[in-house]
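Training component of the fellowship. As part of building independent skills, the fellow (R.M.) carried out the full modelling exercise for a liganded target. The chosen ligand was zinc ion. The inputs are recorded below so that the supervisory panel can assess the work.
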Amino acid sequence: MNTFDTADSDETYDPQAVIDKWLAVWDELGTFAVDRRADERDRQRRYVVSMFSYPSGDLHMGHAEVFSISDAMARFARMRGYDTLFPVGWDSFGLPAENAALARGLDPRGWTYANIATQADSFRRLGISFDWSTRLHTSDPEYYRWNQWLFLRLYERGLAYRDDALVNWCPRDRTVLANEQVVGGRCERCGTEVVKRALTQWFFKITDYAQRLLNDMVQLEPGWPAEILTMQRNWIGRSEGAHIDFTVQGRDEPVRIFTTRPDTLFGATFFVIAFDAPLAARLCAPECRDAFDAYVRQVSAGTDIERLATDRAKTGVFLGRYAINPATGEPIPIYAADYVLATYGTGAVMAVPAHDQRDLDFARALGIPVRTVIDTGAADPARTGVAADGAGIMVSSGRFTGLSSDEARAAIVADLTERGIGGSAVTYRLRDWLLSRQRYWGTPIPVIHCGECGEVPVPEDQLPVRLPDSGYELRPADGSAPLASAHDWVRVSCPRCGAAARRDTDTMDTFVDSSWYFLRYPNPHFTEGPFDPAEIARWLPVDDYIGGREHATGHLLYARFLTKALHDLGLLPFTEPMTRLTNQGQVLMDGKAMSKSLGNLVDLQSQIRQYGPDAVRVTMIFAGPPEDDVDWADVSPHGAVRWLARIWRLAVDIGSASSAPEPSAASAALRRDVHAVVAGTTALMERKRLNVAIAQLMQLTNLLSKAVDSGPGPADPVVREGVEALVRMSSCFAPFTAEESWERLGHRPSVSDAGWPTADPALLERDFTTCIVQIDGKLRDRLRVPTGIDETALRALALASATVVDALAGRPMTKVIVRAPRLVNVVTK
Ligand code: ANZ
Ligand code: ZN
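Fellow's submitted model of the complex:
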């Protein structure tokens, strides 16, 4: 189906044919270019940003969804008179380009920029109202030089550093893999089992900001989904508790543990160190070495998540040493085990089997005594195998016996503090951001390694450190990064002493690029710094940020961290980058994420060819709230095509009718309805309820079609007013159809410049009133109802209200008193 048939005229509307026409008009008028001269301080501004796209091919259905949503929001803001900036860019460094290059012998640069060109064209043909003057690509030296500049600023502050890390290593490809490249413990490329290897890596010290990332969430609560904040809170994982230093028999150095339950100290009957913490190997007694080494080989492969799983059999190995429980003075055996993580807390725990399930499982497996020190009312854990992990009254705990466990917690920490062997402590689960990659297609780390001077930052006037164009060997050899084989590029003289030195051959994680691109958009060619302070003052923070919730604990946390770091460097006046966040759902097919391997991919371009860009956009948005998944098997682009055809037909009918000077008597009610829809749609758009807004516009289309066919007729000015409002509002979702219709109605382009219709409050007031719904005299709901509503309809409406249904919870009603239009009282007793 390529054309809309407009039933009673012989005019058809071809959604493909009009694309080029309107793209040219928009370009010529500069419809979506932000007015860069506008400088009045009190101008209202909106900065709407979609998470930028990764150029791995042409746009897909997921892009169509997120950009349809964000475009509707940007168009709405623009039509309401805001100076609106809606930028476009590409996250164009990254692995898929490099993998495609490896697989096909292509240059990642050529592959990337060809995809960008394809996507740019597709964005235009989808009618997305970007301001193209903002266009940026993170793989341009003009952009990535500022990644390097920012890196150096963080380095100066001690926020970028180099350290050993256990990384994913593919023994076959002989390369480090990012976590995303490890699928089910195997290398994504060759399927070989991945092992952990200690390598020197670059980090950003995001852990310094853990507490501020938590505290500043109050700024985000009004505009961010609670779900995302919860995910970030859990990811940061703040735990309050205590540090306790245990002495180890025969050693001077105490071993520090972190516990959230200092109240259980008297029940610590053994001690566990993560098998992969360097301390475990250091403490291991010589006669236990063989057993320890065998154990390490046996458990090395597990992921952190597997290691922490409570339903897993606990294993461990005795290290031949004893720690002293500082409360009881008893020696307790030290084990190495995999259920303790090297990277959390101090990598060591005091194990309290009576009150911690994992410790109990371990103790039962190894026959270690279980000692209850808190009476929680639960049965004896040694017998039941279920740890008593709650609060209660202290038992067998010396002078703390008889206290509540909460009191004991404070008292024991005070005692340890006084003895100088402990104190209260806070621990975070968050780890520093490992940002180096042994990859070609990314931003080179701007550091030079000199035998004399060590790490030397590349001087600012030598930025950017450009990626070598050629002469590199893409396939990494012997664990060295691809850049290491670009010998001429690697060899430099030390900027400090002039001796022969080597460039760092790592590149940056692409999440560095994406953690600040929204700061550069307003002036993407700025040469004095990463972003233009004047434009920052004008546009930032981002008013509306739209993208997937899979970025909750990665990108969105990194962007928040970097914003705070830049604030502390005096470069940004605010501490949170985005005021409002919308997470669109996924586009599914038959209940499953689309993928090549499942064979359920829907091709965006073929949908656009079949239904036109507007119908695809409308279908995406009408399918449900932006946050919900869209199953393409359940939607009907045909329905959208039909709706758009009806709008077009209304425009044709009204456009060709000679207009009557006076509204007919019959159109007064219609006018009130039109204004009610305008008011309703405006409120829905503001609250991002875009699907319901479309439903309202569809209803308005029905009303107006009826008015044309069997009511006041196409010549009536009220009908025209209604159709014009409909066309203007629908342009947020169906811009091509709206432009075409607007022209049909006799107006000059663009409909985007026509403004959003406003509802006349006088017309709204007269028609609607608030009805109070009570249950047994208690207020339960307020309904907006037409003033003229009759008692039966009002009664039905009130009893259908979700809050009323909830409050009644199935209780029988004895009486329903209705005083239309203002009161309904339900009596239940
Ligand atoms: C003794 C104890 C007794 C504990 C008790 C709990 C209950 P969250 O809340 O997640 O912070 N722990 C400490 N470091 C660990 C590590 N590196 N790997 C695995 N577990 C570790 O958990 C803190 C608790 O987890 C700590 O408190 C410690 O066990 C354990 F009845 O200490 B507890
Ligand atoms: Zn030097």
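The panel noted the following from the submitted structure. The chain has 29 helices and 36 strands. Residues 690-710 form the longest helix (21 residues).
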